[in-house]
Amino acid sequence: MTKRWFITGTDTDVGKTTAGCALLQAARWAGYRTAGYKPVASGSEMTPQGIRNRDALALQRSSSVALRYEQVNPLAFLEPTSPHIVSALERRPVNFDTLSAGLRALEERADWIQVEGAGGWFTPLSASATFADWVVRERLPVILVVGIKPGCINHALLTAQAVQTSGLTLAGWIANNVQPPGRYHTGYLATLVSRLPAPLLGEIPHLPDAGAEQNAGRWLSLAALNGH
Ligand SMILES: Nc1ncnc2c1ncn2[C@@H]1O[C@H](COP(=O)(O)OP(=O)(O)OP(=O)(O)O)[C@@H](O)[C@H]1O
Ligand SMILES: C[C@H](N)[C@H](N)CCCCCC(=O)O
Ligand SMILES: [Mg+2]
């Protein structure tokens, strides 16, 4: 039975890709055939091979099964803005069936699939739909990456409530130290642990060179995800 997860975050730039790659690593160490999926990416570069997004390339590298770029990222936009804006500008609509077809293809190859969203939970994909609508359609359990910094408690609790209101499971959360731990770090962690309605899968320290491969999987435990 394939395990599938949707990785959301308290905001854009909070470490969904960094923490997601770490989780893929932990899952690989646990013996899973892993695949990362970034169905919609905004903020990409044109290369001789075609349009490429950094998150998708990182997820491709972190997947244990060999995947073509287009299998990891079927829809890429150049502009680093909300997908619904650039999609309308380029007249390239985000089609839910395409996103689901990409996921079905990965399910044939992997038994652990992590889907990374774009930005936070309610990022729009069109004039009327959000990324969350597609996650509901796919019934994916959600893992929340909390970028530990002032404001993250509110963003984490709002996201957890929105996930639960949508009828989905918040399966776990990851504390990611996007900033060097501040004076009130312990209080922040304790507050999140006591108020978030899901288990903490681990805490990723502030990494001096987060771009490099860091073996950050060692900071995470999959044990709390077992029942899902
Ligand atoms: N634990 C960490 N320590 C230091 N830097 C980090 C850490 N986690 C993430 N970063 C840095 O923060 C930035 C944002 O991280 P990342 O790209 O993983 O965020 P994201 O939530 O996936 O962003 P997006 O919304 O664009 O997908 C990157 O430059 C990354 O290297
Ligand atoms: C460009 C950025 N890094 C992400 N790819 C997309 C962020 C979408 C944010 C939508 C919003 O404003 O909430
Ligand atoms: Mg990312």
TrEMBL record:
<feature type="binding site">
    <location>
        <begin position="116"/>
        <end position="119"/>
    </location>
    <ligand>
        <name>ATP</name>
    </ligand>
</feature>
<feature type="active site">
    <location>
        <position position="38"/>
    </location>
</feature>
<comment type="function">
    <text>Catalyzes a mechanistically unusual reaction, the ATP-dependent insertion of CO2 between the N7 and N8 nitrogen atoms of 7,8-diaminopelargonic acid (DAPA, also called 7,8-diammoniononanoate) to form a ureido ring.</text>
</comment>
<keyword id="KW-0093">Biotin biosynthesis</keyword>
<keyword id="KW-0460">Magnesium</keyword>
<dbReference type="GO" id="GO:0004141">
    <property type="term" value="F:dethiobiotin synthase activity"/>
</dbReference>
<keyword id="KW-0963">Cytoplasm</keyword>
<keyword id="KW-0436">Ligase</keyword>
<feature type="binding site">
    <location>
        <position position="116"/>
    </location>
    <ligand>
        <name>Mg(2+)</name>
    </ligand>
</feature>
<feature type="binding site">
    <location>
        <begin position="205"/>
        <end position="207"/>
    </location>
    <ligand>
        <name>ATP</name>
    </ligand>
</feature>
<feature type="binding site">
    <location>
        <begin position="176"/>
        <end position="177"/>
    </location>
    <ligand>
        <name>ATP</name>
    </ligand>
</feature>
<dbReference type="InterPro" id="IPR027417">
    <property type="entry name" value="P-loop_NTPase"/>
</dbReference>
<feature type="binding site">
    <location>
        <position position="55"/>
    </location>
    <ligand>
        <name>Mg(2+)</name>
    </ligand>
</feature>
<dbReference type="GO" id="GO:0042803">
    <property type="term" value="F:protein homodimerization activity"/>
</dbReference>
<dbReference type="GO" id="GO:0009102">
    <property type="term" value="P:biotin biosynthetic process"/>
</dbReference>
<dbReference type="GO" id="GO:0005524">
    <property type="term" value="F:ATP binding"/>
</dbReference>
<dbReference type="GO" id="GO:0000287">
    <property type="term" value="F:magnesium ion binding"/>
</dbReference>
<keyword id="KW-0547">Nucleotide-binding</keyword>
<comment type="similarity">
    <text>Belongs to the dethiobiotin synthetase family.</text>
</comment>
<keyword id="KW-0479">Metal-binding</keyword>
<feature type="binding site">
    <location>
        <begin position="13"/>
        <end position="18"/>
    </location>
    <ligand>
        <name>ATP</name>
    </ligand>
</feature>
<comment type="pathway">
    <text>Cofactor biosynthesis; biotin biosynthesis; biotin from 7,8-diaminononanoate: step 1/2.</text>
</comment>
<dbReference type="GO" id="GO:0005829">
    <property type="term" value="C:cytosol"/>
</dbReference>
<feature type="binding site">
    <location>
        <position position="55"/>
    </location>
    <ligand>
        <name>ATP</name>
    </ligand>
</feature>
<feature type="binding site">
    <location>
        <position position="17"/>
    </location>
    <ligand>
        <name>Mg(2+)</name>
    </ligand>
</feature>
<keyword id="KW-0067">ATP-binding</keyword>
<protein>
    <recommendedName>
        <fullName>ATP-dependent dethiobiotin synthetase BioD</fullName>
        <ecNumber>6.3.3.3</ecNumber>
    </recommendedName>
</protein>
<dbReference type="InterPro" id="IPR004472">
    <property type="entry name" value="DTB_synth_BioD"/>
</dbReference>
<feature type="binding site">
    <location>
        <position position="42"/>
    </location>
    <ligand>
        <name>substrate</name>
    </ligand>
</feature>
<comment type="subunit">
    <text>Homodimer.</text>
</comment>
<dbReference type="Pfam" id="PF13500">
    <property type="entry name" value="AAA_26"/>
</dbReference>
